[in-house]
Fold these 2 entries.
Entry 1:
Amino acid sequence: MRKNVVAGNWKMNTTLQEGVALAKEVNEALCGVTPKCDVVICTPFTHLASVNAVIDTNKLGLGAENCADHKSGAYTGEVSAPMVASTGATYVILGHSERRQYYGETSEILKEKVALALENNLTPIFCIGEVLAEREDGSYNEVVKKQIEEALFHLSAEDFGKIILAYEPVWAIGTGKTATPEQAEDMHAHIRNLIAERYGKEVADNTSILYGGSCKPSNAKELFAKHDIDGGLIGGAALDAASFMGIVTAF
């Protein structure tokens, strides 16, 4: 079933102590509030178990920012999907543009990560999006289509239905630039049409597609009002509880 979702991506920010304190703030802010969306925080690996111990997981979902493309073995420094699941986390961000850009993640690698996440009952928040040159040369629809087709369209309809998509115009991440609500809606509608062509209208209508590109309390309401935008994957604004809650309450 299609849900509204607001997910915070803390990236490589906060020490363990700072992260636990921030999680407590968000958890407390949710007390006595009934958001019109699912609320998730995705923290560094080091924080997961400690954060899980201090939040009400009925109100606040917990996710990792990545997982390995192997289940176990001699992969020093990697963290597997079973390890993530063992902390109590139930979500994992996959395919973030920073992972693609800095760590060379390909569609083949991401196929493995998606499979392992699903195998371990983790909900993937799967990121797609174009860089500025692709936006400017008009190839952005094809770029996003290729990212989805190569990494996800081999899945059964049942498994695809377990995935949340996050469209992140890479040119708008951390730059202060934001796609206009119309630009974002156009891409979200394009993504939903691609899903409908592959899996049918029902699966497409039930897929949550988040916007991730400098979403803030000041622009969240306008973005979330669009038909095909089902919430946000939030970066910098998720590092302040009041700012994050300003987005959560934008629905």
Note: The radius of gyration is 17 Å.
Entry 2:
Amino acid sequence: MFTVVNGSPMQWRVDTRTTLLEALRDTAGLTGAKKGCNQGACGACTVHVDGKRVLSCLTLAAQADGRQVTTIEGLAGDDGPHPLQEAFLRHDAFQCGFCTPGQLMSAACLLREGRAGSDAAIREYMSGNLCRCGAYDNIVAAIRDVAKGAD
């Protein structure tokens, strides 16, 4: 199968039962997406496929064939960190850091789709991403800052 991952073409040969998360971590060596619950309930494995957020633990690698995949490793641009990454640092929105990649990937989609109209809207859209440290207020503040252009 052929996929573009973080802008680079990648040819994969994986078992049909292999999840996208497993392919990214074990085959491509991209360990940013985390295996949390492995049941699609925590959001730690969130990546983008063709610009939409997906839970990579519930997505077969074969479903990414011919598609664009972006992981946390590809979120930053050539000119430096993504504004969300900077805002998460400013607002201490990462705590232990385990959920941070999934949080950032979901937040990037939220912003791109214009869903950051209020704190309630941010919380609703981010509700599929769990944080064991309870940094939710800081995460919302970081997203709000980027949505308002304050980076």
Note: The helical segments are 20-27, 83-90, 100-112, 119-125, 136-147.
